[in-house]
Amino acid sequence: MLFGSLEMGLKFQVFVLCLSILFFTIAATTNSRDAAALNSLKDIWKNFPPSWRASDPCEDWVGIRCSNSRVISITLPSMKLSGPLSGDITTLSELQILDLSYNKDLTGSLPTTIGDLKNLTSLILVGCGLSGPIPDSIGHLSKLVYLSLNSNSFIGPIPRTIGNLAELYWLDLADNKLTGTIPVSSGKSPGLDMLVHTKHFHLGKNQLSGTIPEQLFSSNMVLIHVLFDSNSLTGTLPTSLGLVQTLEVVRFDRNQLNGPVPSNLNNLSNVNELFLSNNKITGSIPDLSGLNSLNYLDMSNNSFDPSDFPTWFSTLQSLTTWMMDKTQLQGQVPPEFFSLPHLQTVVMRNNQLNGSMNISNNHSNQLKLVDLTGNQISSIVTTIGADDVDFILQSNPLCEESGETKDFCIPEVEISPYSTQSNNCIPGPCSSAQISSPNCHCAYPYTGTLAFRAPPFSDLENFTYFTTLEEHMVRTFQSYQLPVDSISLSKPHKDSNEYLNLTLRVFPPYDKDSFNRTGVSSLGFVLSNQTYKPPHGYGPYIFMAEDYQHFAGESRSKKSTNIGIIIGAAAGGCVLLLLLIFVGVYAHHQKKIAQKANKQNPFAHWDQTKSSGNIPQLKGARCFSFEEVNKYTNHFSEANVIGSGGYGKVYKGTLPTGELVAVKRAQQGSIQGGQEFKTEIELLSRVHHKNLVGLYGFCFERGEQMLIYEYVPNGSLKDSLSGKTGIRMDWLRRLKITLGAARGLAYLHELADPPIIHRDIKSTNILLDERLIAKVADFGLSRAMIDPDKGHVSTQVKGTMGYLDPEYYMTQQLTEKSDVYSFGVLMLELITGRRPIERGKYIVREIKTVMDKNKDLYNLYELLDPTIGLGTTLKGFGNYVDVAMSCVQESGADRPTMSEVVKEIENILQIAGLNPNAESSSTSASYDDASKDTFKHPYGNDVEAFEYSGGFLPSKVEPQ
Predict the structure, then answer these.
(1) Omega into 445 within 30° of 0, i.e. cis?
(2) From CA 923, how far away is CA 116, in angstroms rounded?
(3) How high is the mean pLDDT of the chain?
(4) Does the annotation mark 760 as catalytic?
(5) Is 883 left (phi over 0), alpha (psi -120 to 50) or beta?
(6) How far apart are the first and last CA of the chain?
(7) 95 in Cβ contact with 73 (< 8 Å)
(8) How far is CA 929 from the centre of its chain?
(9) Which of 103, 181, 245, 880 lies at a 20 to 30 A Cα distance from 755?
C-alpha cells in the first residue's frame, strides 16, 4: 500500500513538473510579435541585462513595460549596451517611449523605418554612438513630444519633416555633426517654422551654415529656449526673433553672423540669458533697455562701431554678468554701473575705456570680478568693502606707466573649487572604487557630468548656488521614489562654450552599496528625458552619464557562481527526493483546501481570456503578487499614504520602470464584496479614455484586496474645493473640470460596449492630474447595461447620500439618467463649494428655493463659493446653472443625456472665451428602508436622519 502511494506520488510529481513547464511556456504575457522583436534586439546586442534571459519580456525584463501584452516602453539608459539599433525595433507598433541614452557603444544609424512607430511620444537617445543621417521618416511620428538625439555623431541636414511634428515640445539635436541650412516651410514642404507649440530649439554645437531665415520665428510661437551656438551660421539675426515674446534663453554665439542687431530685440522682456559673442556683428551696440529680466549678457568679440559706455545699463536691474570683450567701448565706466544690485562679474577686456575707474560706496555686495585688461585706465578709486572684489587691470596705463606691482597689475585670480561636504559625520576609508557619500556611506555612485547650457550666474565661489541645487535634486529624486540616499556636486567650471559643468554623483540607499539595474535605468531616465527640473533660473541642462560598473547582484566572480550552482544543485536534489515522498499526501490535503477556498474566492474560476458569466471580458489588467505591491509601496510605508477612507488607505508606489502608481488597499473588516471588487477590475480594464482613471492591475491574495491605478497627483476634486491642495479653483478652471468629468461619463454611457452606469458620481471620485484634467474614478458600484434595450438595470440601491437619484431610490431601477442626476449635484457642488448635504440642508432644494433668473447670478450670490472669483464676470454662469438644474429634474425622462450635457458645457466654455478642446478614492455608502412597500423620498424634510439610516433596500429582482 505504501509503495502504491509512493508510485502515485511520483507520477503526480512528474505530472506537476510537466504541467509547470507547459504553463510557463504558454503563460507568457508578451505579444508574440513584440517578443520576437525584443529577442532580435537581444541577439544583436552585447551586455544586455541578465534578466533578458527570462522567457517573458513583459514580466521579467528590466526596462520593458507593457500594457495589454504589448510593449509600450523601453527605458534602458546607462546599461552598457553594445551593438547597432536594429530595424526590428520598429515592429513594436504600440511603443510609446524609447530611451536608450548613455550607451556610448550603441552604434550604427537610426533605422529608416523609425517612422513606423506611430504611437511614439518620446524618442530619447542622448549620448550614444549613433551616426549617419537622421531619416526623413522621423517626421511621421505624429504623436512625438520629446525628440532628444543630442551628443551623437549624426550627419547631414536637419530633416525638414520635423516640421510635421505638431505635438513636439522638446527638440534637441545639439552636439552632433549636422550640416546644411535651417529648414523652413516652402509650398508643401514643411520646416521648423511650423513648430508653433515647441518650447525648446536646442541645435547648438553642430556645423549648420547659411543664413537664419526670417521665416523661422513668428509671434504665435511659444519658444523659451533658442540655442544655435557653435555653428557656422552667417548673415544677420532675423527681426522676427524679436516677435517671440516667450523667449527666456537666446544663444547665437560662436557663429559667423554679421550686420547690425535688430532694433526690436529689446522687446524680449522675458529673456534671462543673451549670448551673441564671437561673431562679426557690426553697427552700434544695441539698445537693450527693454530686457528687464536679463541676468547674463555676452556680446564679446564682435565688430561694433566705437561707442561710449551705454546709458541704458541702469534698466538692467537683474543683471549678474556683463561680458563685453573687444566691443569698441570707449570713455569712462560710470561709477553707478557697479551699483546694479545683483552684479557679480564685469569683463570688458581689449576696449578703449579710459580715465579713472571708480567703484562707488554702494557697489553691489555680490560683485566678485572686474576685468578691464587691455584698456586705457589711468587710475582706480576703490571704497571700503571692495576688498572682496578681484580687479584685473594689466596692460593699462595705470600699471605700465607707473610701474605698479599691485595685485591688480599682476593678477592671480584663484577660484576655490566647490565640493559637497559631509553631513555632520566623518568619512571613513572606503574600498577600491567606492566613494564616501555626504552621509559617510561607502558606495558605488551613479556618476556623470551635469552641464548647464546658459546659467544665469557667473560667481562660482558663491556656493549657495550648488547647495541649493543639491537639496533640490535630493528632494526631487526621493519624491519620485527613486532609491537615492544623497548626491554630491564637485568641480564646477566653465568650458569653452560657456557651459557650466559639474560632476554629479548619486548615492544608493544607506543599506546598499550599489544600484541595481532598475535603479540605474530609473535615474538615467529622469535625467535624460528632463523629468528632473532644476530650480527656476538655472537654465537648460544636459546630463552625460559615465558607465556604471557595479550593478547590485552582478559582481560575484565566475568561480563563486559555479560553486553556488554546484551547492544549489546538490541541495535541490535532496529536497526533490523528500518532496517525492511527501507530495502524495500533501496533494490530497491541498485539493480539499483548494475546493473550500474556491467557494469563497470570486476569482477561482475566472478565465481572463473569456467572459465570466454576464461580466465583460477582462483586457489587460495585470494580477500583481502581494510581494510586488509590498515592494512598490516600500512595505506600505506611512510616508507613502496619499489618501484614506472607510475602505482603507491609498499608497503611492513606484513600479520598476520608475512610473508612479496609486495602490488602493482595503482594510480588514471593511472589504467590499468579492464580486464588487471583480466588477471594478473587469470594467476598468476595458475602458480607456483620458477622463477615466487608468487601471494597471490588482492584487487578490493573503486576504488582501488591492487595486493598482495610474497615479493622479492632485488628488480629488473635493480636496481642491476644500482648499486642501492649495489649487486656485477659479471659474474657468471649474468649467474645464466639469467638461472633463462629463466627457468621461459620456464615454461610459455611449461608447463603452456594453454601456456602463457608474452609480457613484461625486467629488471624491473625480481626480485631477498634473494638468488638472478631470478623471472619473472608483468603479466598485458600477453596472454594465447588458441589455440596453431594456433601458435599466434592476438592482439594490447603492450610492452616496446627497448624490443619489431619488427616482432610482424609489423604483430600484438604475438607468444612465441616475448618473446624470448625480452629475447635476456635482455641478452645484462645484459652484458652491459645499457638500450636497450640509447641516441638514440639501443643496438642490436650497438652490431651487432662492434661484431667480431675473437677478444677477440668479440670486445665488450668498450660496456661491467665494474663491470662484465673485469679483469678476462669471461668463456663462446662468447657462451653467440651467444645465445643472436640468440634470436634477425629479423624472429621469426630463433629464438630458450626458452627451447633451457635454455639448452644453462646451458652449459655455466658448461663451467664457475658452477653447473646449484645449487641455490645461472614496467610500460608497448603501441605503435602504426597512419597509418593502413604503418608500420615502430620499431628500425629504428629514434629510439628516435619512443620511445615516444605513442598510439595504429589498431587491425586487436579483442584482446583476
Answers:
(1) no
(2) 45
(3) 83
(4) yes
(5) alpha
(6) 51
(7) yes
(8) 48
(9) 880
Read off the pLDDT of residues 918-947 as tens digits, 9 standing for 90 and up: 765 333 333 333 333 444 556 655 443 333
Please report, as a single letter, which amino acid is at residue 866: P
Crossing angle of helices 877-887 and 898-911, in 10° steps, is 170
Where are the strands (E) in 252-392, listed by range?
256-259, 273-275, 280-281, 296-298, 307-308, 321-323, 329-331, 345-347, 352-358, 369-371, 376-381, 390-392
**Which parts of 622-702 fold into alpha helices (H)?**
626-632, 674-685
**Buried-state track 732-742, b at ≥16 Cβ within 10 A, e below 16:** bbbbbbbbbbb
Count of alpha carbons within 13 angstroms of residue 189, beta-carbon side: 7
Task: Classify each residue of 277-311 as buried b or exposed e, where b means 16 or more C-beta atoms within 10 Å of its C-beta.
Answer: bbbebebebbebebbebbbbbbbbbbebeeeebbe
What cell was used for 405?
606691482
Q: For the chain, how many residues are written?
A: 960
Greatest mean pLDDT among 11-25, 420-434, 822-836 lies in 822-836
What is the spatial distance between Cα 419 and Cα 470, in angstroms, rounded to a whole number?
11
Cβ atoms within 10 Å, residue 870: 12
Q: Are 218 and 238 in contact (CB under 8 A)?
A: no
Q: What is the pTM of this model?
A: 0.59
C-alpha cell at 754: 456594453
Crossing angle (nearest 10°) for helices 731-750 and 816-832: 170
With a cut of 50, say whether residue 671 has pLDDT above it: no
Residue type, 759: R
Q: How far apart are CA 544 and CA 387, in angstroms?
A: 39
pLDDT band at 254 (very low <50, low <70, confident <90, very high): very high
Asked if 893 and 749 touch (Cβ cutoff 8 Å), the reply is no
The SS3 of residue 496 is coil
Q: Which three cell numbers stand for residue 560?
A: 563563486
Residue reference for cell 544623497? 486
DSSP string over 539-593: --EEEEEPPP---TT----HHHHHHHHHHHHHHHHHHHHHHHHHHHHHHHHHHHH
Catalytic residue among 175, 371, 760, 778: 760
Domains of the chain: residue spans and CATH? 438-545 (3.30.70.1440), 620-711 (3.30.200.20), 716-960 (1.10.510.10)
d(CA 840, CA 829): 15
3-class state of residue 943 by DSSP: helix
What's the grid cell of residue 573? Answer: 536534489
